[in-house]
């Protein structure tokens, strides 16, 4: 079964996580993703544990399946020329260079549009080029700080903290996928390519302020920013007799059922808690009473009691525990694959499924320049030209890395 993006060719000029993970998702959906790497390779090739080769680290392996790798030195005129030849045949180009860097390389949208008027040119970087931050570099930490995520953490930690996950990179990566697919749909209808900008900062401010705009939604404001329930220091997994459990009796029917299950029917009619509005106004007390009730039994006992109810609840998994999670095992989420050079690998499946077209792991992450020769041949280069590019260090394969 072919993926929904079969036949779409994507040129990827990205590194680290944002762009590679976005392009991997497009590859999972069936696109032919050509990863254009500098002679030193994507910086993430060397970040994290590795099994066999130095350029095949864990973080690279989780972001670069369903791709082909070609090495091109874009600073060399012949490398830039090869990139333009590839762009002639591409449907989409995704890059995460700052705008001025692509202009210096002669790979800006105006140049690419001249060689391929229907190309979709997606730029994803720190800040929109339309604003005063446009030429600033950015990584996940700086975007978490600027977008308010780090300061939200101060509500529970007492000082600004970063989330221990690259939330800005990955959230923006999903926005890239949405934007590219929307542009492909537009081109299908209208026959036109276009330039897309997906900045991390604006994406994350939009992400954070969905619920936290709150009273500032109105002009003039009718309250402060910040969704009260989420900002309570008591919002956390609850302690049980032997561990932790996540429980959220959110709706009124959840609350009623929860109070019956934990043996606290008095809380159903308590004026502080008898409807959603009251519970929100008394959120700290609501959380405190919930926490107190859950200390009386073990996690397993609460899971058994809550299972037949509609009250949202869940175990508190560890990262290691996710590997043996029974639900993920039953759905086949973790795939064990044999990489031709790196040994046995565990990979997460694409989290979505289609009844008529498959999102799947088709090819495993490539060595640096693994497909350089075949991609250059597809672009029209002859054997002698390819050999010359290899000899001059403009391109290369794993055998001369």
Defining traits:
single chain; 401 residues; alpha/beta; Rossmann fold; formyl-coa transferase, domain 3; 2 domains; 6-stranded parallel β-sheet; 3-stranded antiparallel β-sheet; 18 helices; 11 strands
Say what the CATH topology of the largest domain is. Rossmann fold
Mean pLDDT: 96
- Strand arrangement, largest sheet? 3-2-1-4-5-6
* Poorly predicted parts: none
How many structural domains in the coordinates?
Answer: 2
Q: Number of helical segments?
A: 18
Helix content: 25-40%
Q: What's the main sheet like?
A: 6 strands, parallel
Net shape:
elongated
Structural class: alpha/beta
At the first level of CATH, the class of the largest domain is Alpha Beta
Order of helices and strands: EHEHEHEHHEHHHEHHEEHHHHHEHEEHH
Short description:
This protein is of the alpha/beta class and 401 residues long. The chain contains 18 helices and eleven strands.
């Amino acid at each position: 079964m072919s993926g929904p993006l079969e036949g779409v060719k994507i040129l990827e000029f990205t590194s680290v996580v944002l762009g590679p993970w976005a392009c991997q998702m497009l590859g999972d959906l069936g696109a032919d993703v050509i990863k254009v790497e500098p002679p030193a390779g994507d910086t993430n090739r060397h970040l994290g544990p590795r099994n066999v080769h130095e350029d095949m680290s864990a973080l690279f392996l989780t972001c670069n399946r369903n791709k082909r790798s070609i090495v091109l030195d874009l600073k060399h005129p012949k490398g830039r020329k090869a990139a333009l030849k590839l762009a002639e045949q591409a449907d989409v180009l995704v890059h995460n260079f700052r705008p001025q860097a692509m202009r210096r390389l002669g790979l800006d949208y105006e140049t690419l549009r001249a060689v391929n008027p229907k190309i979709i040119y997606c730029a994803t970087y720190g800040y929109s080029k339309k604003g005063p931050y446009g030429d600033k570099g950015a990584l996940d930490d700086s975007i978490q700080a600027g977008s308010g995520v780090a300061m939200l953490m101060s509500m529970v930690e007492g000082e600004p903290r970063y989330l221990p996950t690259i939330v800005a990179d990955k959230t923006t990566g999903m926005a890239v996928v949405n934007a590219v697919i929307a542009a492909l749909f537009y081109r299908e209808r209208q026959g036109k390519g276009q330039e897309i900008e997906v900045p991390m900062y604006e994406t994350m401010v939009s992400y954070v302020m969905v619920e936290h705009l709150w009273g500032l939604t109105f002009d003039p404001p009718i309250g402060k920013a910040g969704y009260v329930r989420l900002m309570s220091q008591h919002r956390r997994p609850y302690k049980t007799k032997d561990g932790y459990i996540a429980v959220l009796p959110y709706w009124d029917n959840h609350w009623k059922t929860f109070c019956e299950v934990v043996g606290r029917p008095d809380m159903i009619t308590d004026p502080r808690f008898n409807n959603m509005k009251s519970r929100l106004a008394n959120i700290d007390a609501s959380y405190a009473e919930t926490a107190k009730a859950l200390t009386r039994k073990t996690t397993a006992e609460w899971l058994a009691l809550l299972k037949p109810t509609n009250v949202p609840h869940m175990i508190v998994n560890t990262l290691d525990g996710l590997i043996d999670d029974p639900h993920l095992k039953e759905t086949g989420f973790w795939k064990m694959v044999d990489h031709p050079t790196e040994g046995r690998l565990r990979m997460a499946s694409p989290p979505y499924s289609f009844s008529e077209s498959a999102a799947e792991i088709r090819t495993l992450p490539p060595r640096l320049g693994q497909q350089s020769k075949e991609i250059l041949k597809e672009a029209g280069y002859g054997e002698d030209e390819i050999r010359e590019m290899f000899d001059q260090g403009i391109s290369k394969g794993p055998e001369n890395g």
